[in-house]
Amino acid sequence: MATNQSNFDILIKRRLHNSPLSGAAPETNTLKNGELAMNEFDQTLYYGLSTQAGAISAVPIAGEGYLKDFVQGEAANATLGEPLTANIAVGGINIADSFPATTTLKDLVERLLVNTYYPTLVNPSATISSSLASVVETGTKGVTLTVTYSDGHVAGKSIGGVWQAGTNQSESYGGAATKYTIDGQDNGLDNVLVLNDEVILDGANQFTATVDYDAGTYQPVDSKGANYQSTKSAGTTNSASVTVTGKRYSYYKLSDTDINAATSADIKALGNAAFRDGAPLQVALQPGHKYLVFAYPAEDGDVTEVFNVSFNKNDLGDFDTTGTNPGKAWFVKSTVQVAGATGGENLKAYNVYKLTLVNPIPTGGNPLTYNIKY
Fold it and tell me: How crowded is the C-beta side of 267, counted as CA atoms within 13 Å?
């Protein structure tokens, strides 16, 4: 028996698996005409080829150019002669892949050395945008919705025999848009919908859109040029959405004169409008200031701390909350119904706090800074 016979196993006719060791080419008496052997470690293929003198030559198969020349010969048309099932994964062959008896050597070698790659089919899609910011004051009126349609694409293309997954073989997959449905309305072929009377409410206001489209005309292909799946049928995109959130402003004002804070208009006139979302309010009373009024949605709760930054203490317990003791600073709470952005609509309860110092901050004195939590 040849000394290196155990380094190789016959791949064709009886079984298909790798040899356990690397080494030189198999001795010719271990191969029969038309049989194929593989070295497991350097992945060299050997083909048993009968010479004119009747001897068997172990011919190495390596490299695309060599393979092309080799398979153009008579050996390329040789068939397995009996069915074969793989019990290993090698090259483009997976475990349990079956090969009929009529499989040619050329087909088998191509499966071993040449993988098939498939394109990525990107379906048509839609996006929707709003003319408003993502967060606006509750009661804001009027919005324009714009829908953008994409007909998809087919990604992956064979260039010079090499599959380029990041290159598109077609910039289109679906057909042209045939109908835009925006915020539940059939908008025909117009991708813009103007809603002049739309009023943004508290919280999330969601707008949706879909696009109907025609069938596509492009037939995707795999890396070997064979058709992959089919052209895109007519259909409808998945629903796209955009959300505009309605929120309430908080307000405050510092002054050396008394501040009105009894009506919705008074509260909005305070100024310094901001979406605080419960974040602490920091204010600094400057020389001459005696009054502070701040207002915020009552649902955020009552004031829990008025922290005096200058003296590093909570002044809340030192205030007169009734507005009757002339010897203490007054810190009086009231409730006012405050409208949204459109004026008298969308009223919401606000907590309104008015701080009245016993005396104004003296000229030349240091500012009085408060961090107010609620």
Answer: 29
